[in-house]
Specification:
By secondary structure, the chain is of the alpha+beta class. The protein has one domain. It has two helices and eight strands. It has helices at 63-77, 89-98; strands at 9-16, 21-27, 32-39, 43-47, 54-61, 102-110, 113-118, 120-128. The strands form two sheets. The protein has a four-stranded antiparallel beta sheet, with no helix packed on it. Strands 4-7-6-5 form a four-stranded antiparallel beta sheet. Helix 1 (63-77) packs across helix 2 (89-98). The longest helix is centred in the middle third of the chain and has 15 residues, at 63-77.
Length: 133
Amino acid sequence: MTISIHDGVLVGYSVNFLENKLLLDIETAADEMVTVTFENYLAHYFDHVMAGSILFDIDEIDLITFFVENRDQFESHKLYAWPIWYDDTNELEQYLQKNNYKCYVISASLGLTGYVFAKTQKIKGNDKLREKN
């Protein structure tokens, strides 16, 4: 069975820098708790972070396409060495490709949007939620 996060509500997220993981906890439309884990995590950029965020989807996007659309943003980030030290965006793009990083874009119907650089993404379902009173 495929787990769908479409119309799921973001319960919270956490980053473990020692284990290089970012976790999103989501209550699905089917009242299940799922955890989306980004392993071998490098960095993330989130906008509109708020309680009650309703996620639309998480899509892996081609790095070349991503950089065509976001090059200006990374030009301004390089002054802060984010997500790594680089002299120009081509160097950053090559680093991500050479080291097998992927770009996962998070879209929302309401609230949190952004992207994650990581090597893998996994979705794990937990038990059904307990009945709400």
